[in-house]
């Protein structure tokens, strides 16, 4: 199997996680894009949920594989738009933590929900993530900030997808995939309890 996409996704994730220090100084051109790009990497809740979407989507049939990540990104942008318009979502942090728990459980249980159920579920969680991204914007341009976090999210989805597709389709590979889901779900449960 060609591992170049896996390697590229992992390098992108690693570079993005260290970009925050370089952007901490004022005067950078496009700082709103880069602050938006860095935001999903700045919290374990966003990071795990976005990886989980890719991990989950990779084991789904047909078009669902791309519909779930694309739906998440679009709904996340809608959540940021709601925040920009002044609409408050209730319990945003709990919604984000629940997304980590539920997505982890779907992976751990190797669930295959119909797209009519999985897409609205993923989109609902994405609204919370987008709303939280907007709340952290701190005066940046919404368009460039949103472009940054949308791109970072897509890369995290791609990293989760690539890792899953790279994992051998064996009993051991399935156990590793499920264990990763269980660890994600456990983190979500801890976040909900915090």
From TrEMBL:
<feature type="signal peptide">
    <location>
        <begin position="1"/>
        <end position="24"/>
    </location>
</feature>
<dbReference type="InterPro" id="IPR007038">
    <property type="entry name" value="HupE_UreJ"/>
</dbReference>
<feature type="transmembrane region" description="Helical">
    <location>
        <begin position="140"/>
        <end position="163"/>
    </location>
</feature>
<keyword id="KW-0812">Transmembrane</keyword>
<dbReference type="Pfam" id="PF04955">
    <property type="entry name" value="HupE_UreJ"/>
</dbReference>
<keyword id="KW-1133">Transmembrane helix</keyword>
<feature type="transmembrane region" description="Helical">
    <location>
        <begin position="70"/>
        <end position="89"/>
    </location>
</feature>
<protein>
    <submittedName>
        <fullName>HupE/UreJ family protein</fullName>
    </submittedName>
</protein>
<keyword id="KW-0732">Signal</keyword>
<keyword id="KW-0472">Membrane</keyword>
<feature type="transmembrane region" description="Helical">
    <location>
        <begin position="40"/>
        <end position="58"/>
    </location>
</feature>
<feature type="transmembrane region" description="Helical">
    <location>
        <begin position="95"/>
        <end position="128"/>
    </location>
</feature>
């Amino acid at each position: 199997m060609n591992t170049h996409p896996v390697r590229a996704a992992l390098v992108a994730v690693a570079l993005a996680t260290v970009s925050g220090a370089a952007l901490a100084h004022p005067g950078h051109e496009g700082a709103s894009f880069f602050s938006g790009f860095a935001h999903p990497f700045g919290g374990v809740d966003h990071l795990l949920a976005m990886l989980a979407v890719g991990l989950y989507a990779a084991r789904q049939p047909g078009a669902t594989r791309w519909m779930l990540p694309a739906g998440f990104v679009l709904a996340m942008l809608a959540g940021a738009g709601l925040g920009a318009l002044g609409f408050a979502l209730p319990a945003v942090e709990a919604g984000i933590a629940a997304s980590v728990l539920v997505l982890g459980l779907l992976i751990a249980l190797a669930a295959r929900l119909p797209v009519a159920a999985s897409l609205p579920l993923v989109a609902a969680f994405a609204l919370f993530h987008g709303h939280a991204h907007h709340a952290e914007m701190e005066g940046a341009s919404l368009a460039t900030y949103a472009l940054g976090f949308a791109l970072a999210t897509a890369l995290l989805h791609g990293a989760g997808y690539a890792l899953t597709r790279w994992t051998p389709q064996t009993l051991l590979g399935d156990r590793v995939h499920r264990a990763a889901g269980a660890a994600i779900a456990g983190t979500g449960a801890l976040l909900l309890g915090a």
